[in-house]
């Protein structure tokens, strides 16, 4: 959040006052200055974020470099894996599993930027992983974290580039690697002065393990040293979440709208209720704190809903026909995927870039997405090529596909099996990463 905020402000000032070219040193000075000038605004944003996402005081303190707890084992050599949020934790999961199973004496520190990332990490790995919230890119906060742990290596998942973190870690002789590396469209379209800052930060990275040849070229285009880049594939293909799924308490046939955003819940609920199906529609929003808001929106459409927590507490009976079940607890997606008749991936019918389709694919579920899967281009392309995914261009097409699939068990099973087999073809990705990281 911080680099984005600062760089946006630099960009605004630069458009107002700059000449055609800008020296990298000037950008660094402005960045350090704005970090301090915008401190009150940043602090307010962190407090609001803590409230919205149930982060609590630990989230606030650790984001500013305080309240760290040292590991109990092998504290002389700590491996730090940084994951921005849920998606990056999911990418790192195969490596974390290997570290916990094969190197139990290795002290492992995993950081996230968000409470949702922490909650997902905790649901996947209850023991053996020490978690902290990554400090903001203030030099003093980073130094407090690094002084609290004897960190030997920092593995940054996917796309996080923090100028002060990379600089200070490099000065302390911490080896920095970017794993499952990718760059967003916005990063690639950044102005030249910002690419200069990326280039400077990437010069401190020892290795970049990219997910595709295309991503390799992307990193080279913003100034990364081609000699440091190796293409190993997408680590998310190596994730096997079905191994950690538990049974849910729904107890009746259902389809699931996963990781949804506003207004997907209202639009898709309206379609589902109009179909008059006996199956239950289960909504698992991207942010579970939105559950009450979703219930209100559905109520405005005369659609009745029940919260999953009420089912667990037995304060409400299981939903009946024309009712919607809203998941208001974190960590339920895997169990939902394991038993769903069909999965609609949210964040794809709105401009959010979609969400992880590999998880339901690992359970051999039939998957439908909307048009915007821009954050998962490679995964979407692979599943479409292998006939393991249906991508709709709008809600009208979604309605047509639901009508065609919901009673066609053969078609659903074939779609799900194709998706699962597509994942199984990527057998060498994890061994390649383990070898590259010295874990095999």
UniProtKB/TrEMBL annotation:
It catalyses: lipid IVA (E. coli) + CMP-3-deoxy-beta-D-manno-octulosonate = alpha-Kdo-(2->6)-lipid IVA (E. coli) + CMP + H(+). Pathway: Bacterial outer membrane biogenesis; LPS core biosynthesis. InterPro entries: Glycos_transf_N, Glycos_transf_N_sf, Kdotransferase. The record marks 158, 236 as: Transition state stabilizer. It is found in: Cell membrane. The keyword Transferase applies. GO terms for molecular function: Kdo transferase activity. The active site is at residue 88. SUPFAM superfamilies: UDP-Glycosyltransferase/glycogen phosphorylase. The keyword Chaperone does not apply. Its EC number is 2.4.99.12. It is an enzyme of class 2 (transferase). Keywords: Cell membrane, Lipopolysaccharide biosynthesis, Membrane, Transferase. It holds the Pfam family Glycos_transf_N. Gene3D superfamilies: 3-Deoxy-D-manno-octulosonic-acid transferase, N-terminal domain, Glycogen Phosphorylase B. Its main location: membrane. GO terms for biological process: lipid A biosynthetic process; lipopolysaccharide core region biosynthetic process. GO terms for cellular component: plasma membrane. Residues 60-238 form the 3-deoxy-D-manno-octulosonic-acid transferase N-terminal domain. PANTHER family: 3-DEOXY-D-MANNO-OCTULOSONIC ACID TRANSFERASE, MITOCHONDRIAL-RELATED, 3-DEOXY-MANNO-OCTULOSONATE CYTIDYLYLTRANSFERASE. Involved in lipopolysaccharide (LPS) biosynthesis. Catalyzes the transfer of 3-deoxy-D-manno-octulosonate (Kdo) residue(s) from CMP-Kdo to lipid IV(A), the tetraacyldisaccharide-1,4'-bisphosphate precursor of lipid A. Belongs to the glycosyltransferase group 1 family. This is 3-deoxy-D-manno-octulosonic acid transferase. It comes from Thiomicrorhabdus sediminis. The lineage of its organism: Bacteria, Pseudomonadati, Pseudomonadota, Gammaproteobacteria, Thiotrichales.
């Amino acid at each position: 959040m911080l680099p984005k905020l600062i760089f946006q402000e630099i960009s605004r000032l630069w458009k107002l006052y700059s000449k055609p070219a800008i020296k990298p040193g000037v950008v660094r000075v402005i960045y350090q200055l704005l970090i301090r000038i915008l401190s009150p605004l940043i602090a307010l944003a962190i407090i609001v974020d803590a409230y919205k996402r149930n982060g609590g005081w630990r989230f606030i303190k650790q984001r500013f470099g305080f309240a760290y707890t040292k590991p109990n084992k092998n504290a002389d050599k700590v491996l730090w894996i940084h994951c921005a949020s849920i998606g990056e934790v999911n990418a790192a999961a195969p490596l974390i599993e290997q570290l916990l199973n094969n190197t139990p004496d290795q002290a492992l520190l995993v950081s996230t930027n968000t409470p949702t990332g922490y909650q997902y990490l905790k649901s996947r790995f209850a023991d053996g992983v020490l978690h902290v919230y990554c400090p903001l890119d203030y030099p003093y906060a980073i130094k407090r974290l690094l002084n609290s742990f004897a960190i030997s290596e920092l593995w940054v998942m996917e796309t996080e580039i923090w100028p002060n973190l990379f600089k200070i870690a490099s000065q302390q002789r911490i080896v920095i690697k970017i794993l499952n590396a990718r760059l967003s469209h916005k990063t690639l379209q950044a102005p030249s002065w910002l690419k200069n800052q990326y280039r400077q930060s990437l010069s401190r990275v020892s290795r970049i393990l990219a997910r595709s040849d295309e991503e390799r070229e992307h990193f080279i285009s913003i100034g990364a040293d081609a000699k440091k880049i190796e293409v190993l594939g997408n680590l998310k293909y190596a994730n096997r979440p079905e191994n950690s799924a538990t049974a849910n308490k729904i107890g009746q046939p259902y389809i699931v709208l996963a990781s949804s955003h506003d207004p997907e819940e209202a639009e898709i609920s309206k379609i589902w209720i109009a179909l008059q199906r006996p199956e239950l529609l289960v909504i698992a929003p991207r942010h579970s704190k939105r559950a009450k808001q979703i219930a209100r929106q559905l109520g405005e459409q005369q659609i009745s809903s029940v919260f999953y927590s009420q089912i667990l507490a037995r304060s409400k009976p299981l939903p009946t026909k024309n009712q919607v079940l809203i998941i208001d607890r974190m960590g339920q997606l895997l169990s939902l995927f394991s038993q769903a008749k069909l999965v609609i991936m949210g964040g794809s019918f709105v401009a959010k870039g979609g969400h992880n389709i590999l998880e339901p694919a690992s359970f051999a579920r039939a998957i439908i997405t909307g048009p915007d899967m821009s954050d998962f281009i490679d995964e979407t392309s692979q599943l479409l090529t292998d006939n393991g995914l249906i991508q709709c261009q709008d809600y009208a097409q979604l309605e047509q596909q639901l009508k065609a699939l919901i009673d066609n068990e053969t078609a659903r099973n074939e779609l799900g099996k194709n998706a699962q087999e597509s994942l199984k073809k990527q057998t060498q990705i994890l061994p390649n990463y383990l070898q590259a990281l010295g874990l095999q």
